[in-house]
Structure formats: C-alpha cells, structure tokens
Design a protein that fits this description.
Blueprint: H1 4-18, H2 27-34, H3 38-50, E1 54-57, E2 63-66, H4 75-83, H5 112-127, H6 131-137
Antiparallel strand pairs: 1-2
Helix pairs in contact: 1-2, 1-3, 1-4, 1-6, 2-3
Length: 154
C-alpha cells in the first residue's frame, strides 16, 4: 500500500512539474497546492533534494524546482525513495533482495511466482509513468484530487 508520505511526495512533485521548466515554488506554496502539511512536506522535499529529484534554492527568492525534466522522473523512482522497494516481499525485490526468513527454499516457494508477476507488473506501470504523464493526463485535476475540476462554461 502506498504510504501517505509517498502520496504527498508525488502530489508535491506534480505541482512542481505544473510550475513549468523554469518554475520554482516555496515549500508553503507547494504545501498549499498539494494539500499537504508544510512541516511534513519540508522533510519530504529535503529527502527529494538529497536524491537529486528536486533542487532547493535558499534566500529571499528561494524555493524548490525539479532537478530534471518531468518526463525523466517516474512514479517508481519517487515511491522507491520514500517507501522503499516496490516488491511485496524481499525475495522478489530487485533493489533489496533477500530470502524471506520463514521460507525453506526460493526454488520451491509456492507463492514467489505470483509475487514476481505482481512486482514486474507494478514496476512496469510505475516506471513507465512520469510526472509529465501525470500533468498531461490530469491537466484540469488538482494534485490531490481524483476528479476533474468543473470549469464554468466548459
């Protein structure tokens, strides 16, 4: 299950992507647009800066901006930074593989095959979906919403 922290991270990055290639937003602006608690979001943005997903600029005209174009930042990358591996079990993880502590054998495990398929399908979708895809698909949907916003006269 996707954590609330990962949802806030994705929503914040979508807002930075919406700001455009030269866009920069303060943590307060991002928090407001992403409907996220500012202090919690600041910690998330700090982690994103450490991982070179965003850049932070100090000073009176400071703020945050994407470190790379939005088409180069996948949902999988962000989720891995915040929540860790996409796999449901460590024995099928590409990033943090280890044998499950209660499994007698990887070769004879009855559930590992299904978990591998789930990991592969999830990774394929999330690695193929970028911040650019999110803003293109949901041009009229605020980052925290699941439904398009009604515009008068539209």
């Amino acid at each position: 299950m996707l954590s609330q922290k990962a949802r806030y991270a994705l929503r914040a990055l979508v807002e930075l992507a919406r700001a455009g290639p030269d866009g920069q937003l303060t943590s307060g602006e991002i928090a407001l647009r992403a409907d996220a608690p500012r202090k919690f979001l600041e910690a998330i943005l700090l982690e994103m800066a450490r991982r070179s997903i965003v850049v932070s600029r100090r000073g009176k005209f400071g703020g945050y901006a994407l470190a790379r174009p939005p088409e180069e930042i996948s949902f999988a990358e962000v989720i891995r930074v915040i929540d860790g591996p996409l796999a449901l079990a460590p024995c099928v993880s590409k990033m943090a593989f280890r044998k499950c502590h209660d499994c007698p054998s990887l070769e004879t495990c009855a559930i590992r095959g299904a978990l591998l398929k789930a990991r592969d399908a999830t990774a394929e979708i999330l690695e193929g979906y970028s911040l650019a895809d999110a803003i293109a698909q949901n041009a009229s949907v605020p980052a925290g919403c699941s439904e398009p916003v009604e515009t008068p006269g539209a």
